[in-house]
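Table S2 (text version). Query chain:
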Amino acid sequence: MQIREDAAQEWADAERVVGFAHTDCFDPATNTLAGTWYLRKLIRRYPQADDPLPYALADYNAGRGNVLKWIGGAATTNSAVFVGQIGFPGTQAYVKSVLRRYKQYGSD
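Corresponding structure-token output:
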């Protein structure tokens, strides 16, 4: 997973990882722990949505500020409408691609 330095440090602080350096994210185990922790945090950020995952994925890819621009009207709670309002074609394709794979491989 691609974890920005500030997000990785937030994980390390929350998990009390001593001596953490961002380069530690090159280790697959550390990267997976930090990345899934951060994604879980983003999913929890959108409790009002019928499905918070598209919002979290857009947040992960394009940042919270952009997600806040795309949430309006029905897109506040309706994830399908939200995906249609994503203003960056690359982010919209990313969200759709991850959701498609998530459905294909199962959510369990």
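Notes on Table S2: The two ends are 20 Å apart (CA to CA). The chain has a mean pLDDT of 95.
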